[in-house]
Amino acid sequence: MSDYDTDVLVIGSGPAGGSAALLLATYGVKTLLVSKYGWVANTPRAHITNQRTMEVLRDLGLEEKALAEGTPSALMGDTVLCTALAGEEIGRIRTWGTGPHSMSEYAVASPCQMIDLPQTYMEPILVTQAAARGAKVRFDTEFVSFTQDTDGVTALLRDRLRGDEYTVRARYLVGADGGRSLVAEQLGLPIAGQAGKAGSMNIVFKADLSAHVAHRPSVLYWVMRPGAHLGGIGMGLVRMVRPWNEWLLTWGYDIDQPPPEVDDAAATQIVHDLVGDSSIPVEITSTSLWTVNQSYATEYASGRVFCAGDAVHRHPPSNGLGSNTSIQDSYNLAWKLAMVVRGEAGPALLETYSEERAPVGQQIVDRANLSRDQFGPIFEALGIAGGSDDEGIVAGLAACRATDAEGAKRRRALEEAIALKNYEFNAHGVELNQRYRSLAVLDDDGPEEEWPRDPELYHQPSTRPGSRLPHAWVVDADGQRVSTLDLVGRGSFSLVTGLSGVGWNAAAERCAEQLGVRPRVVCVGDVDARDAYGEWSRVSGIAEDGGLLVRPDGYIAARWTSTPGDENALTRTMSTVLARVTEKDAAG
Ligand SMILES: Cc1cc2nc3c(=O)[nH]c(=O)nc-3n(C[C@H](O)[C@H](O)[C@H](O)COP(=O)(O)OP(=O)(O)OC[C@H]3O[C@@H](n4cnc5c(N)ncnc54)[C@H](O)[C@@H]3O)c2cc1C
Questions:
Q1: Within a 10 A sphere around the Cβ of 399, how many other Cβ atoms?
Q2: Distance, CA 207 to ligand 1 centroid (Å)?
Q3: Among 35, 160, 321, which is best to mutate for testing ligand 1, by the most ligand atoms less than 8 A from CB?
Q4: Number of the ligand 1 atom closest to the C-alpha atom of 141
Q5: Which letter does DSSP use for residue 10 in this model?
Q6: Tens of pLDDT along 341-396?
Q7: Domains along the chain with CATH numbers
Q8: Cα separation, 386 vs 179, whole angstroms
């Protein structure tokens, strides 16, 4: 009988923990997911679900479920800046890839669309599917502490219904316990940056606001109101949860003062103020306080314990990156854990998780905080300080509409200031351009990647090792369009080649014999994946007999521009990527 109660113990059922458990269960790993509260998220915090996250869900066979629950991109993007929903418009920006230029950029980059899927809808998909695929799930179960040794981790858990404590023995522990992570704290992960930069409150409410928004459908309505500078950026936010009768309002508070008490009457008053119509019936669902952080762990793991999600990157919601990055952390980690647990990879493979994901965490924390600061130029263009009163805001808008030269100058400045917000609302490169450097990526001697366009704003496909396999539409035997991303993944390594790459089948067979792991050989060009539009040959970066070794998470581990002369090249590469090279092998 095994000494372990489970292979992997996951703490937390948020986007990071829910997706980790789901992925591990899908890969056949014995997984126990525990979470402190009685059910998943009860407030709809995260919502912007970017293309990469949708690709993860597509790989898991859950894209359709997410699309059915989410608000489609067509209703997401007419982001408005105004003095109140019923007040004056300051300007608009087409967001989340819905503008005429960015729409085609997004369509080229991925088979998936961005959607708005509130956390209250995403988490049930992740957790119920994790359970359906074999993960054990225990709510009302609090992580207390852990110890680890060379063979495993022993975690002390508290049953919050019975009140007793008990231990669970696991091979590995994943701490996905959010921004106040006890696991990260007990593990002593180094956290850089600053916590508690500003105070914010969320007010979740129901109200039919169609009259003010349905003609300019969007997820976000930014409202310049007096007092909004206290939370930092000078604007309140009315955010759609469900069109157009469920909402989440974000408003700031002075972090240097005691946290405010927000009862229903106070919350309703704030809602009426931002809507600009006090006759609208409002039903307050909940209120909560949170703080703006700019902090990230520089290491994500130690020994057999790994952290993911807000446990290791803590930042404001700007750019909508939190839940997305959390799910993508788990997508990076889960296949590695699965292969190590099955004995197909050496434990050193797990070290690449931190190497690959910590730089991504730092980048998104800094980007989200910079995006907050980049509201500043809008106020400058209007000639008003963030702390302006009603008269100041009205005077600023009037100055911006003046017919003289000064008015024209202000209008140009306002246009530029609003365009700067593309770095928050259309940051396609931030969403998709991650490049990994680690021992699980064998860089080749191809030319250094050049970035002719802004890498934060624009997606750039590449097959250089460390990049995500580019999406291209190909045509299957039934004449249906499938993405190159559909040909890889599902927990396995793939070797992507072309019609002349006949030698790769034998190479994959040799790999199976020697390592017990057989990469799936994908031939783009054959009857199941015809390059009918020529899209693949334009981005593949290899000759037809070349090969791309693609990891289960869709990242390219190695590239051969043509078939290598050495028939053991694939086995040797797989052995390195999977950390199967022992000291004896290396010496020999
Ligand atoms: C207003 C707002 C808007 C946002 N909008 C977006 C957006 O549009 N897009 C986006 O991607 N992100 C957004 N975010 C960020 C997003 O909500 C977080 O990044 C995300 O929830 C992090 O997921 P997580 O799983 O790491 O942590 P959490 O969601 O915080 O989950 C932590 C889990 O751990 C459990 N837990 C904690 N302690 C213990 C313990 N001791 N024992 C057992 N269980 C424990 C909790 O019960 C919970 O299940 C937003 C955040 C806010 C506040």
A1: 16
A2: 25
A3: 35
A4: 43
A5: E
A6: 999 999 999 999 999 999 999 999 999 999 999 999 999 999 887 667 888 888 99
A7: 6-72+114-191+301-366 (3.50.50.60), 376-420 (no CATH), 468-587 (3.40.30.120)
A8: 28
